[in-house]
Design goal:
The chain has about 280 residues and is mainly α. The protein has 11 helices and no strands. The longest helix has 24 residues. It is globular and about 55 Å long.
Length: about 280
């Protein structure tokens, strides 16, 4: 009975998280895409951001320029290489497969999920907004590349990698919003979809390896650091949104969406890092 108990402990964080991600992802689409109120709120967040050029815009353009087929292939290869150094090449292959599944899945959703025009945009938006729906492909790619390194890395470093991955995920998700490439709900959906794919990959790896020790809890130090970085990320996101602090009250939709982006980015990465943090055999 001991191996079964140990295995149950190892998946105790992954399974509930996956069960939460699925309805959240579906609810985000159902509300922000399929209802007039959701679309109006989405546009309020989109047009609430500032559009002043500056270093933040240059940074956003730079990181988004890394989302190319070549860079995605290199990221997948890096996952295999890192895991192979740990003598876990199968882990690297699964992480790379999850990356490509997330990216291609997001593209399929964007092209096939219907988006009725229920609320008129209060300003000019890209032409592809009329048919391109969530999740954001760039957010999915950036988040999945970062989360894939959590899977590929050594167990003792996974919680630390998760902190860096969370910052990367939040950066990509806010970048597509600040540059006007996507609505805020698209970025939100990209984070959830990435977490779902990578979490499923982690659960698959646990099912095919020897059960890890039962201590799969998030360390208090990492949790405190994660909370601090998340708070700092929210402040940085508002600053880089280009909206003065005194206009906060008039931009509550934007503030709400930034929280809806940054908090899930940190929560999902720390969740995955914590769940696999003690899984030495994965």
């Amino acid at each position: 009975m001991k191996p079964v108990t140990s295995q149950r402990s190892a998946v105790a964080l992954l399974v509930p998280g996956l069960l939460v991600l699925v309805p959240l992802l579906a609810a985000g689409y159902a509300f922000f895409v399929l209802t007039e109120a959701g679309q109006a709120l989405d546009y309020a967040g989109y047009f609430g951001r500032g559009r002043e050029p500056g270093a933040a815009v240059d940074y956003d353009r730079h990181i988004l320029s890394w989302i190319t087929p070549i860079h995605l292939a290199a990221a997948g290869g890096a996952m295999v290489l890192i895991a192979s150094v740990r003598r876990r090449p199968f882990t690297g292959l699964v992480a790379a497969a999850a990356l490509f599944a997330a990216v291609f899945g997001a593209e399929w959703f964007k092209r096939n999920l219907p988006r009725p025009e229920l609320s008129e945009a209060p300003g000019k938006v890209p032409a592809y907004f009329s048919g391109d729906t969530y999740p954001s492909g760039h957010t999915t790619a950036g988040t999945s590349m970062a989360m894939g390194l959590i899977l590929a890395g050594a167990a003792r470093w996974r919680k630390v990698i998760a902190l860096a991955a969370a910052a990367v995920s939040a950066s990509y998700a806010t970048a597509v919003l600040f540059l006007g490439w996507h609505r805020p709900s698209d970025a939100f959906g990209g984070i959830l979809w990435s977490a779902l794919c990578m979490g499923a990959a982690g659960l698959f790896l646990l099912a095919w390896t020897r059960p890890p020790p039962p201590s799969a809890k998030l360390g208090p130090v990492v949790l405190a650091l994660g909370a601090a970085l998340c708070a700092a990320g929210l402040g940085a996101a508002w600053y880089f949104a280009g909206v003065p602090l005194q206009k906060f009250a008039g931009n509550l939709p934007l503030a709400g969406f930034l929280a809806l982006i940054v908090i899930p980015a940190f929560a999902s990465c720390l969740w995955l890092g914590s769940a696999l943090g003690s899984a030495e055999d994965v």
